Amino acid sequence: PSILQPEHLYSPTAVLENQKGNIFEYSTLLCSFLIGAGYDAYVVMGYATREFCKFNQTRVVCPILPDFSKKEEDAKDETIPKYAIKAPPDLRSKFLLEMEQKEIQKKEDKIRQEEEEKRLEIEEFEKPAPDELYGTRIHSWVVVLPTSMDIEEPFFIDPLTGNKYNLSCPSYLGLESLWNHTNYWVNVQDCKEGCKDLRFDLTDLTCWEHLLAGEPWFSRKSNFTEDEESSVDIILMEKHLDMPASWVTKLDISNSEYENRFPKGQKTILYKKAKLEHFAPYVQEDGLITRITTYADYEWETPEWVYEYYSNRADCLTEIRRNLMEYSILEIFKRGREDCLKEHYYYEYSLGVEAERTMEFFHMARLDGLQKLEMHPLYLTEHFKDREDFLFYRRVDYQKRGLAAEEGPKRIVLISVFLFIFRNLLRNTRNPDKEADKDIARKTFAIEDNQIQLKFHYAPDKITAATRDFIKPKTIEIGERLTFNPDLTAGYQTDPMDKPPKNSYLFNLLEEQLKAEEESLLFVRKMEDDVSLILSKYSSEMLQPKLNISIYNMERNKLAIAGMKEVDKKIREEVARQVDMELDFIAPYFASLGDPKKITLAQALNIRENCSTDFKQMLANRINKIQKEFEKLAKKIEADNRWYEEQQGYISKAQEADFMKKNAEDTFNLHVLKTRITRFQDLAPIKYQALEACFRADKRLQILYY
């Protein structure tokens, strides 16, 4: 029970290995890591509420529950214009306005009162049942004091949740004692008001009583007068007790243990109207690491929302939000997909390209600049950004399949795999290189009405925009030329004094728009095919999800493991080969004889004699080379010294300092060479003995010794 203290504690190493323990063992483990990180942390034994002691989070709001209810308000331009129109006089009755305001205020007060009553009712319902053991349940946590790491005030840390709490937290009812690796302190302060009024000056004996005496004199306050002996002398006279050394091995968490941070790779926590599920990476086949489910009731029976978070997905999926009340799904992706998909919103039971859905893309990574795509059974809307042709909006209106069949020949010309297009609307931003009356702002291809409607941009200082409507000519057969009839077009000009456009201009404009209509329809059909391809590919990705494994993850990346083993094998073989080549210095003498398997006594004597002679000659060459360098450097130093004696009174201080520096370097190098000569002379007999030992150890020369 929570009113009893544990009789013994497992070490932090055992807690890490078993991934389980009691509250005191968790506090000890957390305190050990905090002290190792430089914090002044202590394990606390005290009293807490029943919910804290039993790790009951059912009345606590999930700390990582996403909140999308608050939308950022658009910044309003509050600048007062220079020329503002005065508001018309208010001729309404002030009495009626006052009475109306009172009625509105009564309704608002009534609504506010109902909300307050409902809130109080919810608080009363959520209030936990009375606890018979209130104030006696033993609990343990960690306190961090403001003596290091820029901590300004003490605070508590719950080892089960890792949450930080102030001293005034009502869940902590009292504190009995605290300890760490240096000492044990007993609290002698009153805890009737909880822990909010506790003082954590551990050197104040009126608040804390320590167990082990002999603390450093600078960590205690001196209460002695000048007539008394100094505090240093008195403390030195006290009996000094040291905390026993820790028997625990160094705490170490490997990468695999850090990844598999939960027992069996997963953990579930129940919160207020929510359930939080954690999964270690790569435990779930689909890469799921966190799932949050919200409920409408306190018994977790009626789910409303599900938030799923993924990692290491090859399809770049990071998050899925499911609205179980509206059956809607929002999928969020990171950069890296081939189709540049960013978000995908759709309904769970709406399948196929014709279903209602919304897709957002990383427009800067797409060649067409597509930013947003809205699909509906009756329309398709595309939003573009940063296009060279200034197109930023396209809307296509569909007609249901049954209605399209009544049109007869038109269905043959613009046949679709699923829907018939009867209107196509395009909008463009302003092109500064064109005149406003010739820069098209909106194009409407009314396919059903056989019309093309154009609206141009507003010219400066104009409150209307020019328009132009065309009735499309009859269908042109292959090889026929387009004919223009001025009676099939009408337009509006913003300036009545302008001359009407010439027929040649209108003919070219009509021909250009007919071509634009055909291209736009092709783009729409291509987009429908692209959406179908995206859905087909994503369906296979969800059925058979693939996870990316980093090349640095040596425990899971099989290719990396195999490659590292192969490289290590080659390195070992190369090192062994080089060692064999370096050690087998007798091989060239056998090669001169043709590498015979057996040799005679005379041949063996000849090999040993030649090898010994070459070895002696090699040592002699080395020592002679060093001797020559020594003599050369000695002559140089002697010549430099003579020059310095002759020019000592004529050179500057800088030249003299440079000479002294170079002379010191040469003298040091001369000493090194002399030491090497002496070392060669001393080691020569030892090397001869080592050579003879090699002859005796070589099986090919055994005929000399047996």
TrEMBL record:
<dbReference type="InterPro" id="IPR038765">
    <property type="entry name" value="Papain-like_cys_pep_sf"/>
</dbReference>
<dbReference type="GO" id="GO:0030317">
    <property type="term" value="P:flagellated sperm motility"/>
</dbReference>
<dbReference type="InterPro" id="IPR056292">
    <property type="entry name" value="DRC7_C"/>
</dbReference>
<keyword id="KW-0963">Cytoplasm</keyword>
<feature type="domain" description="CEP76/DRC7 peptidase-like">
    <location>
        <begin position="139"/>
        <end position="211"/>
    </location>
</feature>
<dbReference type="Pfam" id="PF24667">
    <property type="entry name" value="MORN_DRC7"/>
</dbReference>
<keyword id="KW-0206">Cytoskeleton</keyword>
<dbReference type="GO" id="GO:0007283">
    <property type="term" value="P:spermatogenesis"/>
</dbReference>
<keyword id="KW-0175">Coiled coil</keyword>
<keyword id="KW-0744">Spermatogenesis</keyword>
<dbReference type="InterPro" id="IPR033551">
    <property type="entry name" value="DRC7/lobo"/>
</dbReference>
<keyword id="KW-0969">Cilium</keyword>
<comment type="similarity">
    <text>Belongs to the DRC7 family.</text>
</comment>
<dbReference type="InterPro" id="IPR056290">
    <property type="entry name" value="CEPT76/DRC7_peptidase-like_dom"/>
</dbReference>
<keyword id="KW-0282">Flagellum</keyword>
<protein>
    <recommendedName>
        <fullName>Dynein regulatory complex subunit 7</fullName>
    </recommendedName>
</protein>
<keyword id="KW-0221">Differentiation</keyword>
<dbReference type="GO" id="GO:0030154">
    <property type="term" value="P:cell differentiation"/>
</dbReference>
<dbReference type="GO" id="GO:0031514">
    <property type="term" value="C:motile cilium"/>
</dbReference>
<dbReference type="Pfam" id="PF24656">
    <property type="entry name" value="CEPT76_peptidase"/>
</dbReference>
<feature type="domain" description="Dynein regulatory complex subunit 7 MORN">
    <location>
        <begin position="263"/>
        <end position="550"/>
    </location>
</feature>
<feature type="domain" description="Dynein regulatory complex subunit 7 C-terminal">
    <location>
        <begin position="598"/>
        <end position="705"/>
    </location>
</feature>
<feature type="coiled-coil region">
    <location>
        <begin position="97"/>
        <end position="124"/>
    </location>
</feature>
<dbReference type="InterPro" id="IPR056291">
    <property type="entry name" value="MORN_DRC7"/>
</dbReference>
<dbReference type="Pfam" id="PF24671">
    <property type="entry name" value="DRC7_C"/>
</dbReference>
<keyword id="KW-0966">Cell projection</keyword>
